[in-house]
Amino acid sequence: MNIRQFLYSADNLGYLIYGGRSAIAIDAGAVEPMIDFVHKNNLKLIFVAHTHDHPDHTSGTRELLKKTGATFLDQGFLLSNKTIDLDGEAINVYPTPGHTDDSVTYHFDDFLITGDTLFNGTVGNCFSGNLKSFYNSIKFLTTFPENTSVYAGHDYLKYSMAFARIIEPDNPDIEGYIKSYDPMHVRSTLKDELKVNPYLRFNDSRFTEILKHKGLPASTEFERWNSIMNLG
Predict the structure, then answer these.
(1) Per-residue model confidence (pLDDT) at position 230
(2) In sequence order, what E strands does the chain have?
(3) For the chain, how long is the longest CA-to-CA vector?
(4) What is the CA angle 107-111-113, rounded to 5?
(5) Strands across the sheet with 71-73, in order?
(6) Residues paired with residue 22 on neighbouring β-strands, in sequence order
(7) For residues 214 and 232, what is the distance between their CA atoms, to the nearest angstrom?
(8) Which of 131, 132, 127, 129 lies closest to 116, judged by CA?
(9) Contact 5, 15 (CB under 8 A)
(10) Are 115 and 57 in contact (CB under 8 A)?
(11) Contact of 111 with 148, CB cutoff 8 Å
């Protein structure tokens, strides 16, 4: 299977996952570009779904369904079924609550579509209020192989790295991470994220020392996560 990224609004990112015949749209704000891509590649859009139900991720859904006749897969269906069959291949759907209670992450091959749970260089706001669930979701996402690509719901990379430089100015990996940034194809690997994303670095000894120096709790893993979330 393949993935195609679409920028819409100021910084939202939507996706088509497609095989040889069929496609599914995830966070379908870029309605016309998605339809054009499907037509030019002789595909049939059969499903539309979301990473979560915030309006900026659902804005194009109704129009895309009307113009294509695709089937909408709501969060309830996704959380109950946990897989989507596309041309005989499985797309895994994992609950990753924290940003919202209904947040999910899509996984196939070596790709993750993480919505507003994990961004390239940062994480989302905890609008659900459940910081422990958010922590567990981030922990889960870091269990995937380091070469797994992260495709997020927004392009916040420049802002996130500006913040990372404030928190960890001596981090030697930030410069290379920024140089590899392509605004036309925003992605990173989990290996990249573990090197530079402050919110994934709670088990790095250098980062633990930074938290202690700031007088923040750092004795347990969850304390370090909570301290890092409070830094932002």
Answers:
(1) 86
(2) 2-8, 12-18, 22-26, 44-49, 71-73, 83-86, 89-95, 104-108, 111-115, 149-152, 188-189
(3) 58
(4) 65
(5) 2-8, 12-18, 22-26, 44-49, 71-73
(6) 44
(7) 13
(8) 127
(9) yes
(10) yes
(11) yes
Extended strands (E) in 59-212: 71-73, 83-86, 89-95, 104-108, 111-115, 149-152, 188-189
Residue among 9, 20, 28 at smallest CA distance from 89: 20
CA 99/CA 19 separation, integer angstroms: 30
Report yes or no: 224 and 212 within 8 Å, Cβ to Cβ. Answer: no
Cβ contacts of residue 101 below 8 Å, gap of 6+? 128, 130, 133
Name residues whose C-beta falls within 8 Å of residue 140's C-beta, 6 or more positions apart in sequence. 94, 96
Q: Can you tell me the distance from the alpha carbon of 199 to that of 161, in angstroms, rounded to the nearest whole number? A: 12
What are 156's two structure tokens?
Answer: 């916040």
Render each residue's pLDDT in the chain as its tens digit; 232 residues.
Answer: 999 999 999 999 999 999 999 999 999 999 999 999 999 999 999 999 999 999 999 999 999 999 999 999 999 999 999 999 999 999 999 999 999 999 999 999 999 999 999 999 999 999 999 999 999 999 999 999 999 999 999 999 999 999 999 999 999 999 999 999 999 999 999 999 999 999 999 999 999 999 999 999 999 999 999 999 988 7
Of the candidates 140, 154, 145, the residue with the CA atom closest to the CA atom of residue 200: 140
Q: How far is CA 129 from the centre of its chain?
A: 19
